[in-house]
Amino acid sequence: MIVDVHSHLFTCPDDIDDPFRGEVSRAHGGPVDLTVKYADYAATAPDGTRTIVVGGKARRSGLWVEDDDVAAYVAEHPDQLIGYLSLDPTHPGWRDELRHGHQELGLRGIKLMPMYAGFDPADPAYDDLYSYAESHNLPLLIHTGTTFVSTAPLRWALPVHIDEVAIRHPELRIVLAHLSHPFEGGCIAVIRKHRHVYADVSALHYRPFQLWHSLRLVQDYRVWDKLLFGSDFPFTTVDASIEGLRRVAAVPGIPGLDPLDADQVEALIHRDALPLLGLT
Prior knowledge:
- The chain is an alpha/beta fold.
- The protein is about 35% helix and about 15% strand.
- It holds the Pfam family Amidohydro_2.
């Protein structure tokens, strides 16, 4: 079974405004259709794939997907999909949205976008958010790494900020998205330190050298078990992500260095992330 810990729901154009809408072509160097339909997702994923679905909230960057829409989408395919609520803690009323998404909609995790929304994720002002998530077993998916959006401050994308969160909330399950590219070294340092902090490998395969190099660092630091599979659909697909991982696993090592451990790459592809995140 494949578990995809990072896929999106967008119901374009209602969810997306500028600057996100106008700058998204930078993601692949050309136009990207972000409208999500489950049939399109399922057609590009192995049978039986279980999928975590997130929306996203970041007023600063022009992205706002209602949690009710995520819940309705998941309800159409409850055996395959697990929904997360999203929060922009710079937006008034986020605490009510947290309770609504969790207690009324039954969403099972939280997506945060500190860089897109423009906030310091390590600020103690948000400790009640993290305490709520920790006490209710709601795993976090946090966007770390770069972006194409010009208004998003890169300093809030650095994975080192999540180190402080994990120190204060050691039982909180956290996934750092995209292996925090291009800050992979910092990401590896954080996931190695903390028992319940992981990284996903979504949206990396179309930069194959960078992915190969990142996984070599993972191998050298012996943190293969802290990586989770993700796609970042609709930016790419599950099938393409699996193919890309296997492609870099087949690359011979640099002379004098071992290649990637292909067995570990396969273990990553097939890792059951749900018990690790408390979602069984």
